[in-house]
Protein backbone atom coordinates (compact mmCIF):
# COMPACT_ATOMS: atom_id res chain seq x y z
CA UNK A 1 0.00 0.00 0.00
CA UNK A 2 1.23 3.51 -0.76
CA UNK A 3 -0.04 7.03 -1.28
CA UNK A 4 1.09 10.19 -3.02
CA UNK A 5 2.50 11.70 0.21
CA UNK A 6 4.55 10.59 3.19
CA UNK A 7 4.55 12.06 6.70
CA UNK A 8 7.16 13.97 8.69
CA UNK A 9 7.29 14.41 12.47
CA UNK A 10 8.64 17.94 12.94
CA UNK A 11 9.84 19.55 16.16
CA UNK A 12 11.72 17.99 19.10
CA UNK A 13 8.86 19.08 21.39
CA UNK A 14 5.35 20.24 20.42
CA UNK A 15 5.79 17.80 17.53
CA UNK A 16 3.58 18.38 14.49
CA UNK A 17 2.76 16.13 11.52
CA UNK A 18 3.47 17.41 8.00
CA UNK A 19 2.42 15.81 4.72
CA UNK A 20 5.30 15.76 2.26
CA UNK A 21 5.32 14.94 -1.47
CA UNK A 22 8.87 13.78 -2.34
CA UNK A 23 8.28 14.35 -6.06
CA UNK A 24 7.49 18.09 -6.08
CA UNK A 25 8.41 19.07 -2.51
CA UNK A 26 4.86 20.06 -1.54
CA UNK A 27 4.89 20.30 2.28
CA UNK A 28 1.86 21.12 4.47
CA UNK A 29 1.23 20.91 8.19
CA UNK A 30 -1.71 18.67 9.16
CA UNK A 31 -3.71 21.39 10.91
CA UNK A 32 -6.32 19.11 12.45
CA UNK A 33 -3.75 17.07 14.44
CA UNK A 34 -2.71 18.93 17.60
CA UNK A 35 0.97 19.27 18.59
CA UNK A 36 2.28 16.65 21.02
CA UNK A 37 4.12 18.57 23.72
CA UNK A 38 6.41 15.75 24.91
CA UNK A 39 7.61 14.97 21.39
CA UNK A 40 7.80 11.60 19.65
CA UNK A 41 9.90 9.76 17.10
CA UNK A 42 10.43 6.23 15.67
CA UNK A 43 7.31 6.60 13.51
CA UNK A 44 5.70 4.12 11.11
CA UNK A 45 2.61 4.10 8.88
CA UNK A 46 -0.17 1.49 8.96
CA UNK A 47 -2.18 1.71 5.72
CA UNK A 48 -5.91 1.03 5.84
CA UNK A 49 -7.02 1.06 2.19
CA UNK A 50 -6.48 2.80 -1.14
CA UNK A 51 -8.57 5.90 -0.40
CA UNK A 52 -7.83 6.20 3.32
CA UNK A 53 -5.08 8.03 5.15
CA UNK A 54 -2.88 5.67 7.19
CA UNK A 55 -2.61 5.52 10.93
CA UNK A 56 0.75 6.85 12.12
CA UNK A 57 2.34 5.09 15.07
CA UNK A 58 5.27 6.46 17.06
CA UNK A 59 6.83 6.23 20.51
CA UNK A 60 7.47 8.71 23.31
CA UNK A 61 9.05 7.34 26.47
CA UNK A 62 7.18 4.11 27.30
CA UNK A 63 4.09 5.14 25.34
CA UNK A 64 2.76 4.32 21.90
CA UNK A 65 1.41 7.42 20.14
CA UNK A 66 -1.34 6.76 17.58
CA UNK A 67 -2.07 9.60 15.13
CA UNK A 68 -5.14 9.43 12.90
CA UNK A 69 -4.49 12.17 10.34
CA UNK A 70 -7.95 11.79 8.81
CA UNK A 71 -9.91 12.07 12.06
CA UNK A 72 -7.46 14.56 13.59
CA UNK A 73 -6.97 12.49 16.73
CA UNK A 74 -3.83 11.75 18.71
CA UNK A 75 -3.82 9.28 21.59
CA UNK A 76 -1.19 7.76 23.86
CA UNK A 77 -1.02 4.41 25.63
CA UNK A 78 1.59 2.89 27.95
CA UNK A 79 3.02 -0.26 26.35
CA UNK A 80 3.76 -3.37 28.38
CA UNK A 81 7.48 -4.15 28.24
CA UNK A 82 8.56 -0.90 26.53
CA UNK A 83 11.37 1.00 28.33
CA UNK A 84 11.49 4.79 28.57
CA UNK A 85 13.74 5.35 25.53
CA UNK A 86 15.20 7.54 24.06
CA UNK A 87 14.01 6.39 20.61
CA UNK A 88 15.35 7.07 17.14
CA UNK A 89 14.53 4.76 14.21
CA UNK A 90 11.08 3.32 13.58
CA UNK A 91 9.04 1.61 10.86
CA UNK A 92 6.14 -0.80 10.56
CA UNK A 93 7.16 -4.40 9.84
CA UNK A 94 6.25 -5.56 6.31
CA UNK A 95 3.17 -7.34 7.70
CA UNK A 96 2.03 -3.98 9.17
CA UNK A 97 1.30 -5.58 12.56
CA UNK A 98 4.32 -4.43 14.56
CA UNK A 99 6.16 -1.14 14.99
CA UNK A 100 9.92 -1.84 15.12
CA UNK A 101 11.82 0.79 17.15
CA UNK A 102 15.47 1.38 18.02
CA UNK A 103 17.09 3.09 21.01
CA UNK A 104 20.74 3.53 22.04
CA UNK A 105 23.59 1.54 20.41
CA UNK A 106 24.02 -1.17 23.07
CA UNK A 107 20.42 -1.49 24.30
CA UNK A 108 17.81 -3.80 22.77
CA UNK A 109 15.51 -2.74 19.97
CA UNK A 110 11.82 -3.52 20.40
CA UNK A 111 8.98 -4.84 18.29
CA UNK A 112 5.64 -3.43 19.47
CA UNK A 113 2.67 -5.65 18.70
CA UNK A 114 0.01 -3.04 17.89
CA UNK A 115 -2.98 -5.30 18.59
CA UNK A 116 -1.61 -6.77 21.84
CA UNK A 117 -0.05 -3.46 22.99
CA UNK A 118 3.07 -5.37 24.06
CA UNK A 119 6.77 -4.80 23.31
CA UNK A 120 9.26 -7.63 22.74
CA UNK A 121 13.04 -7.02 22.95
CA UNK A 122 15.22 -7.76 19.94
CA UNK A 123 18.90 -7.28 19.10
CA UNK A 124 20.88 -4.11 19.79
CA UNK A 125 21.33 -1.74 16.84
CA UNK A 126 25.04 -0.90 17.00
CA UNK A 127 26.69 2.51 17.04
CA UNK A 128 26.32 5.59 14.86
CA UNK A 129 24.08 8.55 14.22
CA UNK A 130 21.27 6.99 12.19
CA UNK A 131 17.79 8.18 13.15
CA UNK A 132 15.34 6.39 10.85
CA UNK A 133 15.08 3.30 8.70
CA UNK A 134 12.70 1.95 6.06
CA UNK A 135 11.84 -1.46 4.65
CA UNK A 136 12.48 -1.99 0.94
CA UNK A 137 9.08 -2.78 -0.64
CA UNK A 138 10.37 -5.72 -2.70
CA UNK A 139 13.32 -7.25 -0.85
CA UNK A 140 12.00 -6.57 2.66
CA UNK A 141 15.50 -5.45 3.70
CA UNK A 142 15.83 -2.58 6.16
CA UNK A 143 17.94 0.45 5.13
CA UNK A 144 19.26 3.49 6.94
CA UNK A 145 21.89 6.23 6.46
CA UNK A 146 24.73 7.19 8.80
CA UNK A 147 24.55 10.94 9.42
CA UNK A 148 28.24 11.56 10.15
CA UNK A 149 29.63 10.20 6.87
CA UNK A 150 26.67 9.28 4.64
CA UNK A 151 27.28 5.52 4.64
CA UNK A 152 24.36 3.42 3.40
CA UNK A 153 23.47 0.97 6.18
CA UNK A 154 21.79 -2.41 6.10
CA UNK A 155 19.90 -3.26 9.29
CA UNK A 156 19.43 -6.99 9.96
CA UNK A 157 17.12 -7.59 12.95
CA UNK A 158 18.48 -11.14 13.23
CA UNK A 159 22.09 -9.98 13.61
CA UNK A 160 23.87 -8.78 16.79
CA UNK A 161 24.48 -5.87 16.42
CA UNK A 162 21.99 -5.23 13.64
CA UNK A 163 23.93 -2.56 11.70
CA UNK A 164 26.35 -3.24 8.86
CA UNK A 165 27.82 -0.77 6.36
CA UNK A 166 26.54 -1.69 2.91
CA UNK A 167 28.45 1.04 1.04
CA UNK A 168 30.54 3.97 2.26
CA UNK A 169 29.89 7.70 1.66
CA UNK A 170 26.88 7.25 -0.62
CA UNK A 171 25.14 10.33 0.85
CA UNK A 172 26.58 13.70 1.84
CA UNK A 173 27.09 14.11 5.61
CA UNK A 174 23.84 15.14 7.30
CA UNK A 175 23.22 18.69 8.44
CA UNK A 176 21.47 19.81 11.62
CA UNK A 177 18.67 22.36 11.72
CA UNK A 178 19.13 25.60 13.63
CA UNK A 179 16.92 24.30 16.46
CA UNK A 180 18.64 23.84 19.82
CA UNK A 181 20.05 20.33 20.24
CA UNK A 182 19.43 19.29 16.62
CA UNK A 183 21.34 16.18 15.50
CA UNK A 184 23.31 15.88 12.28
CA UNK A 185 21.29 12.87 11.26
CA UNK A 186 19.21 11.42 8.45
CA UNK A 187 16.00 11.49 10.45
CA UNK A 188 13.34 10.55 7.85
CA UNK A 189 13.67 7.74 5.30
CA UNK A 190 11.12 6.10 3.00
CA UNK A 191 10.70 4.25 -0.31
CA UNK A 192 8.39 4.32 -3.27
CA UNK A 193 6.85 1.03 -4.35
CA UNK A 194 9.51 0.46 -7.04
CA UNK A 195 12.39 0.74 -4.56
CA UNK A 196 13.52 4.35 -4.95
CA UNK A 197 14.93 5.41 -1.56
CA UNK A 198 14.54 8.91 -0.10
CA UNK A 199 16.48 10.22 2.90
CA UNK A 200 15.84 13.57 4.62
CA UNK A 201 18.26 15.01 7.17
CA UNK A 202 17.36 17.00 10.29
CA UNK A 203 17.72 20.27 8.38
CA UNK A 204 15.36 19.17 5.60
CA UNK A 205 17.81 18.33 2.79
CA UNK A 206 16.35 15.55 0.62
CA UNK A 207 18.37 12.91 -1.22
CA UNK A 208 17.28 10.18 -3.64
CA UNK A 209 18.97 6.83 -4.27
CA UNK A 210 17.86 4.31 -6.90
CA UNK A 211 17.61 0.93 -5.16
CA UNK A 212 15.19 -0.57 -7.70
CA UNK A 213 17.80 -3.10 -8.83
CA UNK A 214 20.45 -5.15 -7.03
CA UNK A 215 23.13 -2.57 -7.85
CA UNK A 216 23.76 0.19 -5.31
CA UNK A 217 24.83 3.49 -6.93
CA UNK A 218 28.01 5.14 -5.68
CA UNK A 219 26.28 8.41 -4.83
CA UNK A 220 22.79 9.69 -4.05
CA UNK A 221 21.29 12.71 -5.77
CA UNK A 222 20.38 15.85 -3.82
CA UNK A 223 16.91 17.07 -4.84
CA UNK A 224 16.14 20.71 -5.46
CA UNK A 225 17.88 23.91 -4.46
CA UNK A 226 16.39 24.22 -1.01
CA UNK A 227 15.16 22.34 2.03
CA UNK A 228 11.82 21.00 3.18
CA UNK A 229 10.12 24.25 4.28
CA UNK A 230 9.54 23.80 8.02
CA UNK A 231 11.35 26.96 9.17
CA UNK A 232 14.08 26.39 11.75
CA UNK A 233 12.35 23.34 13.24
CA UNK A 234 14.06 19.96 13.33
CA UNK A 235 12.73 17.08 11.25
CA UNK A 236 12.59 14.24 13.77
CA UNK A 237 11.27 11.26 11.81
CA UNK A 238 9.31 10.12 8.78
CA UNK A 239 6.88 7.40 7.75
CA UNK A 240 5.03 6.18 4.70
CA UNK A 241 5.57 4.99 1.16
CA UNK A 242 4.70 6.72 -2.12
CA UNK A 243 3.43 5.43 -5.41
CA UNK A 244 6.11 5.92 -8.10
CA UNK A 245 5.80 8.47 -10.90
CA UNK A 246 7.63 8.39 -14.26
CA UNK A 247 8.92 11.93 -13.69
CA UNK A 248 12.03 13.21 -11.90
CA UNK A 249 11.71 14.79 -8.45
CA UNK A 250 12.41 18.54 -8.30
CA UNK A 251 11.74 21.29 -5.74
CA UNK A 252 13.10 24.17 -7.85
CA UNK A 253 9.94 26.31 -7.77
CA UNK A 254 9.18 28.91 -10.42
CA UNK A 255 6.41 31.49 -10.55
CA UNK A 256 2.90 30.42 -11.56
CA UNK A 257 -0.37 32.36 -11.40
CA UNK A 258 -3.97 31.34 -12.07
CA UNK A 259 -6.91 33.07 -13.74
CA UNK A 260 -10.34 31.49 -13.45
CA UNK A 261 -12.24 31.62 -16.72
CA UNK A 262 -15.61 29.97 -16.18
CA UNK A 263 -17.38 26.77 -15.12
CA UNK A 264 -20.20 24.74 -16.64
CA UNK A 265 -22.22 21.64 -15.85
CA UNK A 266 -21.36 18.32 -17.47
CA UNK A 267 -23.53 15.26 -17.87
CA UNK A 268 -20.91 12.52 -18.18
CA UNK A 269 -19.78 12.32 -15.48
CA UNK A 270 -22.44 14.41 -13.74
CA UNK A 271 -20.65 17.40 -12.24
CA UNK A 272 -18.87 20.60 -13.24
CA UNK A 273 -15.98 21.52 -15.51
CA UNK A 274 -13.72 24.39 -14.46
CA UNK A 275 -11.53 26.34 -16.88
CA UNK A 276 -8.34 28.09 -15.73
CA UNK A 277 -5.50 29.91 -17.44
CA UNK A 278 -2.21 29.08 -15.70
CA UNK A 279 0.71 31.38 -16.48
CA UNK A 280 4.26 30.11 -15.94
CA UNK A 281 7.08 32.64 -15.67
CA UNK A 282 10.76 31.71 -15.89
CA UNK A 283 11.58 33.30 -12.54
CA UNK A 284 12.57 31.43 -9.37
CA UNK A 285 9.80 31.77 -6.80
CA UNK A 286 11.97 32.30 -3.72
CA UNK A 287 14.83 34.43 -5.05
CA UNK A 288 13.03 36.25 -7.87
CA UNK A 289 15.96 35.43 -10.16
CA UNK A 290 15.11 35.13 -13.86
CA UNK A 291 16.47 31.88 -15.30
CA UNK A 292 15.77 29.86 -18.44
CA UNK A 293 13.33 26.96 -18.15
CA UNK A 294 13.46 24.03 -20.57
CA UNK A 295 11.31 21.51 -18.74
CA UNK A 296 8.67 22.12 -16.09
CA UNK A 297 5.95 20.57 -14.00
CA UNK A 298 2.73 22.08 -12.63
CA UNK A 299 0.94 20.33 -9.76
CA UNK A 300 -2.21 20.91 -7.73
CA UNK A 301 -4.80 19.02 -5.69
CA UNK A 302 -7.43 16.94 -7.47
CA UNK A 303 -10.42 15.20 -5.83
CA UNK A 304 -10.03 11.45 -5.44
CA UNK A 305 -13.61 10.78 -6.58
CA UNK A 306 -14.06 8.52 -9.60
CA UNK A 307 -14.24 10.50 -12.85
CA UNK A 308 -12.22 13.51 -11.71
CA UNK A 309 -9.78 14.46 -14.46
CA UNK A 310 -7.56 17.20 -15.89
CA UNK A 311 -7.11 18.13 -19.55
CA UNK A 312 -4.53 20.50 -21.03
CA UNK A 313 -2.72 20.75 -24.36
CA UNK A 314 1.05 20.56 -24.79
CA UNK A 315 1.67 18.68 -21.52
CA UNK A 316 1.49 15.13 -20.17
CA UNK A 317 -1.12 14.82 -17.43
CA UNK A 318 -0.84 12.36 -14.53
CA UNK A 319 -3.58 12.20 -11.89
CA UNK A 320 -2.84 10.11 -8.83
CA UNK A 321 -3.90 9.92 -5.17
CA UNK A 322 -5.37 13.40 -4.92
CA UNK A 323 -2.74 15.24 -7.00
CA UNK A 324 -2.51 16.26 -10.65
CA UNK A 325 0.87 16.68 -12.37
CA UNK A 326 1.21 18.48 -15.72
CA UNK A 327 4.63 17.76 -17.19
CA UNK A 328 6.19 19.46 -20.20
CA UNK A 329 6.71 17.29 -23.26
CA UNK A 330 10.33 17.35 -24.34
CA UNK A 331 12.24 20.63 -24.41
CA UNK A 332 9.77 23.54 -24.16
CA UNK A 333 12.24 26.42 -23.87
CA UNK A 334 11.08 29.43 -21.87
CA UNK A 335 13.64 32.26 -21.81
CA UNK A 336 14.54 33.88 -18.50
CA UNK A 337 11.79 36.26 -17.35
CA UNK A 338 9.31 35.32 -20.08
CA UNK A 339 5.91 33.69 -19.56
CA UNK A 340 3.75 30.99 -21.07
CA UNK A 341 0.01 30.40 -20.72
CA UNK A 342 -1.57 26.94 -20.37
CA UNK A 343 -5.34 26.49 -20.34
CA UNK A 344 -6.49 23.71 -18.02
CA UNK A 345 -9.90 22.03 -17.77
CA UNK A 346 -10.72 20.29 -14.47
CA UNK A 347 -13.69 17.92 -14.30
CA UNK A 348 -15.13 17.34 -10.81
CA UNK A 349 -18.00 14.81 -10.51
CA UNK A 350 -20.84 15.47 -8.09
CA UNK A 351 -24.05 17.41 -7.64
CA UNK A 352 -23.47 20.70 -9.53
CA UNK A 353 -25.59 22.55 -6.97
CA UNK A 354 -23.21 21.47 -4.20
CA UNK A 355 -19.93 21.96 -6.04
CA UNK A 356 -18.18 25.35 -5.71
CA UNK A 357 -18.67 28.00 -8.37
CA UNK A 358 -14.86 28.18 -8.67
CA UNK A 359 -12.59 25.22 -8.04
CA UNK A 360 -10.06 26.28 -5.34
CA UNK A 361 -6.97 24.82 -7.07
CA UNK A 362 -5.25 24.20 -3.73
CA UNK A 363 -1.59 23.29 -3.75
CA UNK A 364 -0.85 25.02 -7.07
CA UNK A 365 2.90 25.09 -7.69
CA UNK A 366 5.33 24.88 -10.61
CA UNK A 367 8.86 23.53 -10.65
CA UNK A 368 11.78 23.64 -13.08
CA UNK A 369 12.80 20.09 -14.00
CA UNK A 370 16.34 18.94 -14.79
CA UNK A 371 17.02 19.38 -18.51
CA UNK A 372 19.76 16.77 -18.83
UniProtKB/TrEMBL annotation:
<dbReference type="InterPro" id="IPR054215">
    <property type="entry name" value="DUF6923"/>
</dbReference>
<dbReference type="Pfam" id="PF21959">
    <property type="entry name" value="DUF6923"/>
</dbReference>
<dbReference type="InterPro" id="IPR011044">
    <property type="entry name" value="Quino_amine_DH_bsu"/>
</dbReference>
<feature type="domain" description="DUF6923">
    <location>
        <begin position="59"/>
        <end position="214"/>
    </location>
</feature>
<dbReference type="InterPro" id="IPR015943">
    <property type="entry name" value="WD40/YVTN_repeat-like_dom_sf"/>
</dbReference>
<protein>
    <submittedName>
        <fullName>DUF6923 family protein</fullName>
    </submittedName>
</protein>
Amino acid sequence: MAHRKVYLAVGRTHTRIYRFDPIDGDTRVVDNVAPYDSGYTAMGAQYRGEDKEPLLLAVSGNKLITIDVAAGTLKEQVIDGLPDGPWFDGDMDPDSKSLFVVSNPDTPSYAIDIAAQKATPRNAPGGGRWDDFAYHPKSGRLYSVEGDNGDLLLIDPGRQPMKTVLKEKVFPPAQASSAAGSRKAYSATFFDQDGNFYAVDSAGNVNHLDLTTGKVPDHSQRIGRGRVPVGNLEIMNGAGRITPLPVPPSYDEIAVTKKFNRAWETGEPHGRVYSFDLTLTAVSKDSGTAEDVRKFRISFDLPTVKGAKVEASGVDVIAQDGKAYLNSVGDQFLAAGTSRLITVLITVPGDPARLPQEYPLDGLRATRLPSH
